[in-house]
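We give the entry.
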Amino acid sequence: ALSLVVCETAGAAAKGAPEGAASPAPANGQPPPTQALPQPVAPAAQEEVTPLEALALKADAVAQEAKCAMDRALEAQQDAASRVREASRRLREARQESSLAWERVGRAAGRAALQTQ
């Protein structure tokens, strides 16, 4: 039976590394919370793994790694969109402040011109 691989270990499983090798263990020795998800299940030790089963396990790990990469890309895209919206809002505010400042400069220049006459 095949099961899902968590994102942190998908790369290691696809490369044939032992589980958990893709991300270092935290200082407290406990696995990160995301590693509580089920890991790939290989056939029992007494059973021989056929080349097809090995290929299926590797394909599952590669597919999970691709899904994790897509999830990270989507998260990055959403973060970038949020940053763009925030930057646009700041730019609008700066333009409004600049416009108001130029209006004040114009009024001050007009008053100064009237006083010099």
